[in-house]
Write a structure and sequence with these properties.
Number of helices: 20
CATH class of the largest domain: Mainly Alpha
Largest sheet: 6 strands, parallel
Radius of gyration: 22 Å
Number of domains: 2
CATH superfamily of the largest domain: Dehydroquinate synthase-like - alpha domain
CATH architecture of the largest domain: Up-down Bundle
Order of helices and strands: EHEHEHEHEEEEHHHHHHHHHHHHHHHH
Strand order of the largest sheet: 1-8-5-4-2-3
Oligomer: single chain
Number of strands: 8
C-alpha cells in the first residue's frame, strides 16, 4: 500500500475537499466526539455536505472515550452497511485508533483529520485497543490521507501538544531498545528506519522551546515527526520503531487505571515520564564496565518460570494469565537462548555502551521535556510513588519484546531505580 497523502498547512478542509474530487467516495462516516465536534467536526460535516457528500456523523459521547469493544461496536452499528463508504476520523489518538480498526474490519478505507499533534498514530497501521481490560496493539490499516490543519493543531490544548512532543522524545529510549534487541536477542532491525527516526527526533529536540511556545514552524516540525513515526511503524508492520520500555511503562499505568476505573492521563505525557525513567536506567548501565558486566552475567541464572508467573500475577491481577500467555520466547526462555544471551552480553558490551551513549542523560532529557511543557513529576500524571515503582517492576511484561528492562533483569539489577 502506498504511503498516505499528507497535508500540513492552513487549509486542511479545503485540501480534503480538493482530494475528494479525484476520489470515488461521496458517502462519509464521520467519527468524532464531544470535544472534537466543535473544534473541527461540525465544520467538516458542513463543508462535506456543501460539496454534495452524504455524511453519517457518529459523535461519541461521554466524559472520556476509550478505544474498547463498546466503542468499536458503537461505530460499526452507527455506520450501517459498509456500501461505498469512506470513514473520516476527526480527532486525535483514540478516535483515530477506533476508526482505523472499524474501517479495516468492515473493509472500507479511512482518512484522518487530526485535531492535536498529540500522538504518532495518524499514519500508523496499528490500533492500540483495550480488549477485556488489557491494552493490546492490533494490526489494522493506514489512512489513505491525513489532512492536518496547522492552525487547529496550534490551538490544541498545550498539554496535548506537549504529549505529542514527549512521545517523540521517547524515541531516544525506544530506538536504543530496538538496537539493543538486535545486538543481544537477534531481532531484525531496519537501519534506514532507525536513521530516519533519529533525524525526526533531532528536529523535535531542536525545536523544543518553539514547541512549548506554540510557534508555527515548531508545531509543523512536531507534526511531521509524528507522521514520520507512524509511517515507520506501518512500514515495519508493528510498533517497534517507535515503542520500547518507555511505552511499556505507559501501557502498564494505563491498564492499571482502566482496571481501577480511573480516568487516563495523556498517553504521550506518560511516555515522556517513562523515557525519563529509562534514561536513568541507561545512565546506570553506562557505569558498568565490561568486567563488571561479565561478573554479573556469570552469576546470573535464567528466568525462573514460577517466579516470573508469580510476579506477573502480582503486577497484573485479573489479567495476569493473558499477560503471561503473551510473553513469547522470553518466558519460558529456552536454555540455548539464555546461553546465547549471556555470551552476547559479555562479548558485545562495548557495543551495548555505544548504544547507551546515544541516550541523553536524565538531566538533558528532563530539560527537553520541560521545554515542550511536558510533566516530569509523576504526581502531575496521577501516579503515586508506588505506581511508578510497580511500572518499573512489572511494565516490561506488557509486550514480548527484549528491552533494557529485560537486560537489567538478566544482569540481576534491581528494576526499581
Amino acid at each position: 500500500m502506498p504511503e498516505p497523502s499528507l497535508y500540513i498547512g492552513p487549509e486542511a478542509l479545503t485540501a480534503l475537499l480538493a482530494w475528494l474530487q479525484s476520489q470515488p467516495w461521496r458517502d462519509i462516516a464521520l467519527v468524532c466526539d464531544d470535544r472534537t465536534w466543535p473544534v473541527l467536526g461540525a465544520a467538516a460535516e458542513g463543508r462535506l455536505r456543501e460539496a454534495g457528500c452524504s455524511v453519517r456523523t457518529m459523535r461519541l459521547g461521554g466524559p472520556g472515550v476509550v478505544a474498547d469493544e463498546e466503542r468499536i461496536v458503537e461505530i460499526l452499528q452507527q455506520a450501517g452497511a459498509p456500501g461505498h463508504l469512506l470513514y473520516l476520523a476527526v480527532g486525535s489518538g483514540t478516535l483515530c485508533d477506533l476508526t482505523r480498526f472499524a474501517s479495516h474490519r468492515s473493509g472500507r478505507p479511512f482518512v484522518s483529520l487530526p485535531t492535536a499533534p498529540s500522538v504518532d498514530a495518524y499514519t500508523s497501521r496499528n490500533s492500540p485497543l483495550v480488549l477485556r481490560g488489557l491494552k493490546v496493539t492490533v494490526d489494522a490499516q493506514q489512512p489513505l490521507a491525513v489532512f492536518a490543519d496547522l492552525e487547529v493543531l496550534r490551538s490544541a490544548p498545550s498539554a496535548m501538544i506537549a504529549a505529542g512532543a514527549a512521545d517523540v522524545l521517547g524515541k531516544y529510549t525506544a530506538l536504543a531498545d530496538w538496537r539493543l534487541a538486535a545486538l543481544l536477542w537477534g531481532e531484525e532491525i531496519d537501519g534506514a528506519i532507525v536513521r530516519e527516526q533519529y533525524a525526526a527526533l533531532a528536529q523535535v529536540a531542536g525545536a523544543a522551546r518553539g514547541i512549548g511556545r506554540g510557534e508555527p514552524e515548531a508545531i509543523a516540525a512536531l507534526t511531521g515527526a509524528l507522521m514520520a513515526s507512524g509511517s515507520a511503524m506501518a512500514r515495519w508492520k508493528n510498533s517497534r520503531p517507535a515503542s520500547g520500555a518507555e511505552h511499556h511503562l505507559s501501557h502498564y499505568w494505563e491498564t492499571m487505571h482502566l482496571l481501577q476505573g480511573r480516568p487516563a492521563s495523556l498517553h504521550g505525557a506518560k511516555v515522556g515520564l517513562g523515557a525519563l525513567l529509562m534514561a536513568r536506567a541507561w545512565a546506570r548501565l553506562r557505569t558498568l564496565n565490561a568486567a563488571q558486566a561479565a561478573t554479573l552475567m556469570g552469576a546470573a541464572r535464567p528466568p525462573d518460570l514460577e517466579q516470573e508467573r508469580a510476579a506477573i500475577a502480582s503486577g497484573y491481577g485479573p489479567i495476569a494469565e493473558a499477560v503471561f500467555a503473551a510473553q513469547g520466547d522470553l518466558l519460558p526462555m529456552a536454555p540455548e537462548r539464555w546461553q546465547g544471551l549471556r555470551e552476547r552480553v559479555v562479548s558485545h558490551w562495548d557495543e551495548v555502551l555505544a548504544i547507551a551513549a546515544d541516550v541523553p542523560s536524565p538531566e538533558e532529557l528532563e530539560q527537553l521535556l520541560l521545554a515542550v511543557g511536558a510533566p516530569t513529576d509523576p504526581a502531575a500524571l496521577d501516579l503515586s510513588a508506588v505506581e511508578v515503582a510497580d511500572g518499573l517492576r512489572y511494565g516490561h511484561y506488557v509486550r514480548d519484546r527484549f528491552t533494557l528492562r529485560r537486560l537489567e533483569a538478566a544482569l540481576g539489577l534491581d528494576l526499581v531505580l
